[in-house]
Amino acid sequence: MRIVSWNVNGLRSIAKNGFWRGVWALKPDILCLQEIKAEADQLPSEMREIPGYTSLFNSSKLRKGYSGVAMYCKTPPLSVEYNIGTEERFDLEGRMITAVFEDFILCNVYFPNGGQGPERLAYKMDFYDAFLEYIEELRSKHHKPLIFCGDINTAHEAIDLARPKENEKNTGFLPEERAWLDEVVATGYVDVYRMRNPNRAGIYTYWDQKTAARDRNVGWRIDYFFVSNDLVPKVTAATIHSDVYGSDHCPLSIDVIL
Fold this sequence. Notes:
- This protein has a single domain (2-256), classed as Deoxyribonuclease I, Chain A.
- 24% of the residues lie in helices and 25% in strands.
- The protein has 7 helices and 14 strands.
- Helix 4 runs parallel beside helix 5 (175-187).
- The longest helix is centred in the middle third of the chain and has 25 residues, at 118-142.
């Protein structure tokens, strides 16, 4: 099974500019998209209904054209959730789809950006904590391995961005943000790309478009696949598809035996 994740930075833009086919060339069994910036009824029919796939959408309830996630699955999930808990403030921005399958759980998540001041950073950190609590409860409830993927909006280690020194005091590489990823690992989840490529530098998933950073490969690895420890032996590939264009992020994928 191949699962692909991509922050598209506007799904309608991907369609308009002809990049929609590029991600399907990766032949995903499940495609997870973040930052779709659209409601389902705003999308062309070829994006709402893909032959052979079940389509799932969770759009922002606060304002149109903001945030949002989508998932396309060859095998229909047994159940689907769109919320991460009892606090409504975490669920208004359309940031998550959780699909429960026969043999595993998959969470597709667009984590908040910590920019725009202290309040937004606090929201990001609170979301982080609520999400980790949520997935631990999911595993206890369903007794299945768990995968979560998406734009986490934090580079974990210095190897994960081109200019770590210059960004030590910037959101996306703050000590408290990175410490949460340490906690994720300590809880029993594995960053499968880094596990398989422990020393590989210069591989990123996001580049600032305003400065043409992708042309110079001045980027950040802020998009991830994490899997629970019990799934690690079943992951046969973890790939960053930096040759696929259309967004300020590129897709990434894992191949897993399920």
